[in-house]
C-alpha cells in the first residue's frame, strides 16, 4: 500500500518563505496539535494541493501564498514538497511551486510555476540515478493520485477534505449524488454503459438495414442469375437455330439442284410426249390416206393372171397419157398460179396500204375525239366554261393549252406552300410528341422518386417500430412508480414529523429513573412482542402481496388502455389477458401465411413484368433495325426513281416504249407510202389519195415538196426515236433491277413495321398493366409487413398481460395462505399495544443503560430509515424521470410512425396519379399528317 513520509512547506500562508518547515508522518497515526492559527489547516491544504493540485476555497488572487507585505518583498516564492511511497513501495518526491508578485497598486498576481515528480530508477542499486518528470511532459494532477492508488475525489472529499467543505454529506441530494458518484467512480461506468447501449442500438439498426440491403441484393442477384440463364438459353437457342438454318440452307440448295434436274427431265419428257403425239398424228394421216386410196381401187378377185397383166398394161398406157396431160396441166397451172400470186401480192399490198391509212385515219379521229373529251372533262373539272363546248379550230386548242399551263403553275405554287405548311405542322406534332415523351419521362422520374421515398420511409418506420419495441415502459409502470414515490414521500414526511415530535432525549432522561422496575414483566412482554412481531411480518407480507396484486392489475389495465383499441382493430376481439396472446398468435400466423402468398404473387408479377419488358425491348430493337433497313432501301429506290412511284414509273416507261416502237415501225410504211404517192402523181398528174387532178404545176410542186420533206424527215426522226427508245429501255431495266428492293420495302413498310408497331403497342399496354400489378402487389406486401409489425407489438403486450395475470393468480393463492395463518393465531393484541405497555414498563425498569441504548438505537434507526427513505425517493425520482422520458420518446416515435404512414398514403396516391398519367401518355398515338405527293407530268402539247 502507499504511504506518505514527509511534507516540506515554504512560503505557504503563515509559513515563512525564507525557511522550510518539514513534517514527518508516522505509522499508523500522526496527531498534529496546536493553537488556532498555528498552521494545522495549512498542512491539510498543502497535502491536498500537492496531491490533487487544487487550491483551498476562497484563495484566489494569491491568498494561499505568504503575503509579500509581511515578507517585505515584492515577489514571494512558495513551494510544497511531499515524499511518499507508491503502491510498489518505491519512494517518490512531488513538488509544486507558486509565485506571488506585488504590483505598485498593491494588487497581487499569482502564477503557478513548474511542478516535478522525481524518483530513483533503481533504489536498491548503489549508483541509482534520479529520474524527474515535470508538468511540461506529464499531468501532475493525475500522476500523484495514480501512484498513491487513491482517486482524486477521495483525496479531495475524504482524506484531505477542507474544514469549510467537510459538511458536504449534508448538502442537497443532487450535489451529494455527484460527490458520491465521483468518490465511487460510478459516473464513468454509467457513461460507459450508456455508450455501450447506444452503440448496441446503433449496431442493431445498422444490422437491420444491412439485412434489408442483403435481402435486396439477394433478390437482385437471383434476378440477375435468372436473366443470365435466360440469356444463355436464348444464346444457345440462337446458335442452334443458326446451325439449323445452315442445315436447311444446304437442304434447300440440294433440293434446288434436284428440282433443276427434275425440271430438265420433265422438259425432255414433254418433248418426247410432243414427238409421240406428232408421230401418232402422222400415222393416223397415213392410215387415212391409205383408206382413201383403197376407196378408188377395185379389187379383182376372180381375174386370171393374163387378165391382170393385160389390165396392168392398159393401166400403164392410161397412166402414161394421164401423166402427160397432168404435166401439161401442171405447167398451165404454174403459169396461172404465178400470175395469181402477183395479183394477190398487189392486192395484199393495196389492202395493207388501205388498212394502214384507215387505221391512221381512225387513230387521228380517235385522238381528236379523245382530245376533245379530255378538254371538255378538264374544263368541267377546273371550271373553264368557254371550252366546255366543242372546239372547232386549232387556235382554241392552243389557247386552251396556254390556259392550262398558267393554271398548272398556280397549282404547283399552291402545292409547294401546302407542302411547306404540312411539313411545319408535322414538325410541330413531332415537337408535341417529344414534349409528351419528356413529360412522361419526368412523371416516371417523379414516380420513381415517390417509390424511393416510400422505401426510405418504410425503413424508417421499421426502425421506429424496433425502437418502440425496445422501449418496455408502460403507463402502469409510470403510475406504479408515481404512487410509490408519493407513498415514500408521505412516509418520509411522517417519519420526519414523528422524529421531530418524538423527543427522544427527554424520554431517555425520564425513563432512566425507573429502569430497573418490572424486569420480569418486561421480559414476558418482550416474548409476547416477539410473537406479535412474527405476526407483523406476516401482516406486512400480506400487505405487500395485496399491493403487488393491485399494481399488476393496474399494469394490465394500463396495457388494455394502451393497446386495447389496436388489439380490437387487429384481432376483432376484446383484449382478454388470459387468452389475448393465443388469439393474436393465431392472427399473426394467418397474416404471415397471407404475406407468404402475397410475396409469391409479387415475385410472379415481377417476373411477368420483366418478361414483357424484355420482349418490348427486343421488339423496339427490331423496329429500329427494320426502319433503318427500310430507310436504306428507300434511299436506293429514290436515287433511281427520283421520288416517283416505281409501279407508275414502270407502267409509264412501258407505254413510252410501246409508243416509240409503234412510231419506229411506221417509219418504213410512211417512206414507202409517200414514195408511191410521188410515183403515182407523176404519170396521171393527180393525187394518189383523193384522185383529184392538180390544177397547175405549182400545186403539184407543193405536193411533191411536202412528200419529199416527209420522206427526208423520217431518218432523223427514226434516229431520234431509237435514241429515246434506248433511253427508255435503259430506264426500264433500272426500274426492273430495283423492283425487288421496292417489293422488300413495301413488305417492310406495310407488313413488318406495322406488325411490330402493333405488337409494341400491345406490349406497352401489357407492361403498364404489369407495372400497376407489381406496384399493387408491393403495396400489399408492405402493408402486410406493417401489419405483422403491429401484431408483434400487440403480441408482446399480450404476453406481458398473460404473465401478469398468471402472477396475480399465484399472489392470490399466497394471500389466502397468509390470511389462514393469521386466523389461526387467535390473539387480539397488536404489536403497538404491547410496545406501549413495554414502554410503560421500561419507565419503571431500573436498568437505565439498557433502556437508554434502546431509545438511542430507536433514534438512530429512525434517522437511518429517513436517510434510506430519502435515498429510495431519490432513486424513484430518477427511475420515474427515466420512465417518463422513455414514454415521451415512445409517444414521439408513435407520432412519427403515424406521420410516416400518412406520408406513405399520400405517396401511394401520388404514385397512382403518376401511373395514370404515364398510362394516358402511352395511349396517345401520334397523328400522321397526310401530305399529298403528286406525280408531275409534262404538260400536254399540241402535237
TrEMBL record:
* A Gene Ontology molecular function term of the record: G-quadruplex DNA binding
Q: Which UniProt keywords apply?
A: Chromosome, Coiled coil, DNA damage, DNA repair, Hydrolase, Metal-binding, Nucleus, Zinc
Positions of the UniProt region annotated as Disordered? 302-341
User: Which Pfam families does this one have?
Assistant: AAA_23 (PF13476)
Q: Where is the composition biased (Polar residues)?
A: 316-326
- The source's domain of life comes to Eukaryota
InterPro entries referenced in this protein's UniProt entry, alphabetically: P-loop_NTPase, Rad50/SbcC_AAA
- From the Swiss-Prot or TrEMBL record, state where the protein is found: Chromosome; Nucleus
Q: Which GO terms describe its biological process?
A: chromosome organization involved in meiotic cell cycle; double-strand break repair; telomere maintenance via recombination; telomere maintenance via telomerase
Q: Which GO terms describe its cellular component?
A: condensed nuclear chromosome; Mre11 complex
| Catalytic activity, reaction form | ATP + H2O = ADP + phosphate + H(+)
User: Would you identify the family this protein belongs to, as annotated?
Assistant: Belongs to the SMC family. RAD50 subfamily.
According to UniProt, the name of this protein is DNA repair protein RAD50
Say which species the protein is native to.
Puccinia graminis f. sp. tritici
